[in-house]
Specification:
single chain; about 240 residues
């Protein structure tokens, strides 16, 4: 018996749901703002109905098909089950580009302290052509970026370059005290290892090697307490990051 193909609308809904599952199901905080960047302004469809982001309602016309705890690298069935989640982890945002999703950490549990960003392979969802294949599809974490200072600051936002080769992180210079408290602490300047990665600002990450994301540059001089949001745009052939 032939299996029903997955319509394009379902594909879009699944990707939207995957982003939500990464942020809400995996780490307990909202990830991204579907349809827009502000809660209450996001809309679903031509009627302009708002998403139920604040009152506990699920996203309309969306079903969850994927979950990864981001406990470590690997496939969700082996390394990303709910029981493998680090209780103190908190994520801030998720961005998708082609077959990858990138999520940033605003706090990481002391089980694996200093995690700043994770890269996930979502290709099995993109490639699914039937409901059965969609049910069997899995998320896979390909690489995790760690901060050089395991106890300093948080990445509150992430945006990707148009080619999906670079990620830009907004970071704030906060000392999580304690880490399990969700990174609510005070500014920390006394760590002798403090570097531009650990003082808050904009951090550029090369994600062209999906299994080995690496920090390649950062800007801190223009900021006092760090950056909360970043946006990437290509204007007249030049790449810009607004912070």
């Amino acid at each position: 018996m032939a299996q029903d193909p997955v319509p394009d609308s379902t594909r879009r809904a699944v990707l939207k749901s995957v982003g939500a599952a990464l942020g809400v199901g995996a780490v307990g905080s909202a990830a991204g703002h579907p349809g827009g960047y502000e809660k209450g302004t996001s809309v679903d469809g031509p009627g302009g109905e708002p998403f139920g982001l604040d009152d506990g309602e699920p996203f309309r016309n969306v079903a969850a098909y994927g979950y990864h705890s981001i406990g470590s690298t690997g496939r969700s069935s082996l390394h990303g089950q709910e029981g493998q989640r680090h209780v103190g982890d908190r994520n801030a945002e998720v961005r998708c580009h082609g077959d990858i999703a990138v999520t940033c950490f605003r706090a990481s549990d002391d089980e694996d302290a200093g995690r700043r960003m994770a890269v996930l392979d979502i290709s099995e969802f993109n490639d699914a052509e039937t409901e059965a294949e969609l049910d069997e599809a899995e998320l896979s974490v390909t690489g995790i970026l760690h901060n050089v200072n395991a106890e300093a600051n948080r990445a509150t936002d992430v945006k990707l370059s148009d080619d999906g080769e670079y990620a830009f992180l907004a970071t704030q210079a906060l000392y999580p005290g304690p880490i399990r408290d969700g990174s609510n602490g005070s500014t920390e300047f006394t760590d002798p290892r403090s570097t531009p990665q650990a003082t808050g600002g904009v951090v550029a990450v090369d994600i062209s090697d999906r299994g080995n994301p690496r920090t390649i540059d950062s800007v801190t001089e223009a900021f006092s307490t760090g950056v909360h949001n970043v946006f990437h745009h290509r204007i007249d052939g030049t790449e810009y990051v607004f912070a």
